[in-house]
């Protein structure tokens, strides 16, 4: 032993950095030989600290070691008294103090992602290898001991790297650790969860079972992965656990700290959907700031909420793109991994106790997916409960999971420590014949694929005896037979033990249970604050659509064409008067059609965002509705002003400031009333194609029933003109331009226009009330 290293003929690797002490480490190829020299201290009990022990604090570090100090050998022990290695690979730029510190007879390990981890909660007889294994080094090895770095060197290196102080070396600035804040612990348990969907046919209905008796649990400090092939029920189970699906066809029990789901849990649960539901034209900072203003409690000031948003940005490594727009299908913005981290930031900004994610790595490359899962590891290690679905993780991702639920055709195939999944399947006779990703091996079993997998002797005997009568030789089991065997094997060998564990009492007080089950719902902001925040958010998001060059060009082109066709129209003759009346009719029709077909898309396009934000009680529906409708008005009224400025003076309409503004007011009333009709149609159908069809039929009917083309309108349909904005706006424009409307224009019973104005104001509020009721009755989907 020399300088704290064990030297036996093997090479040494000297890791030297500026101002760092020179440390001799064993060469990788001679690990098995070098590590035999490590002597275990029998007097010091090595107790590995699990993730649930987050409140236990590490002992204070001694002063940094001088470069001339020599290293010492530090023993490590696992839960069973056997030697164990906990190691995390180097990223090339940082050296992290990774060895645990044995002091006072207790073995403590740091929970930070940059440190080494020992996972011995369900320790076996052999050495426990950390899930953060030699992924980035490019090779793999196993051993039973390791000479750890001394405590003083560890503290010296950590001080240089700044991993415990939250220093971002690339950004060159310190950042606050948001995930280290105190979290309300929530234990999730679910037993015999079953879920069915009702399939309605033309003549009959049938039931389809999606989940069949799923049992499991997750506790603070753990990352639980739900894995299985497509259609196995991962997303359905995740929705049930998050409280987003509550139908009568759900059976079983789901508890949170041994209490059923309550509305108060919405403020403690974060849910990241598979699709990135974000506003495309808001920047990263604006997105997280608006989320902080709406979701964080009222006890925090606006500055504190904005500071929290910035802390999340630095915590997730988004500082370089904080002023970049999110982007979408037709707008370039941040990358896919950055967009996914923004979605995660939207949820962790409120410091949730439970975080659910639906396939957070879908569509990401392996490196970006690894960074995303590392973020989830950090969140879990801060004392939160994290549950995520995963489709087909790489081997590096798989080893970062604490617990695993393997689903196949809605049935439970495995639940337990992820590191023990392959050992369990080996115990029932399923072993891969070639070296492969453990996640790939498990998914092959769940899919019924038996290529490159040894078959259990019991299953082979069963298939052989079944096919004996038919004379078939060397028949392989079908996917259905393999699935039945795996389900039966889990139920007979493991299921009862897991159910007994779930019956154990939780280490929480009754006060915490009462707090969790409280039906009280707290809003993060007052009604007026919610309205103000949503108003400015809507104004920033939709200004790009309303002020797009296509829409401006459309309005300007039509205005110029109308001005040229009715250039300085003459009303001294009857023909000229009729021509000018035709211009007024076109204005009333155009500013009736245009706003209707614009407003139709409002709520159907934002349905996903509305579902997402309303599911977590981000704001009141009334505040959203009024803010959404009023934030459109400044942008909707800008183009009509430009339009009327061009048409009014080119056509030579009544040149008077009073009459110009009265005409503008009539057009405004027509636009707002037409918008209300479009909002009502869109909110009631929530389908763009259906809403467009209904709107075109409705507007055409209003125009025809107004008597502009047919003088004798049947009585059964003539009443529609009273709820037609085209009818009232045309009559008002005639009244503004001509004090006494000529009789040959066929406009009867036009007095001072008060009735028409009152009717249009009534339509403004009535149509919007119908839209609000339709939104209120809309069922929020998960």
UniProtKB/TrEMBL annotation:
InterPro entries: AAA+_ATPase, ABC2_TM, ABC_transporter-like_ATP-bd, ABC_transporter-like_CS, ABCG_dom, ABCG_transporters, P-loop_NTPase. The keyword Plastid does not apply. Belongs to the ABC transporter superfamily. ABCG family. Eye pigment precursor importer (TC 3.A.1.204) subfamily. Residues 81-99 have a biased composition (Low complexity). Residues 49-129 are annotated as: Disordered. This is ABC-2 type transporter. It is found in: Membrane. Residues 104-115 have a biased composition (Basic residues). Keywords: ATP-binding, Membrane, Nucleotide-binding, Transmembrane, Transmembrane helix, Transport. It is a multi-pass membrane protein. It comes from the Eukaryota. PROSITE patterns: ABC_TRANSPORTER_1 (PS00211), ABC_TRANSPORTER_2 (PS50893). One of its GO terms (molecular function) is ATP binding. GO terms for cellular component: membrane. The keyword ATP-binding applies. Residues 193-434 form the ABC transporter domain. Pfam families: ABC2_membrane, ABC2_membrane_7, ABC_tran. The chain crosses the membrane at residues 549-569, 581-603, 637-655, 661-681, 693-710, 757-775.
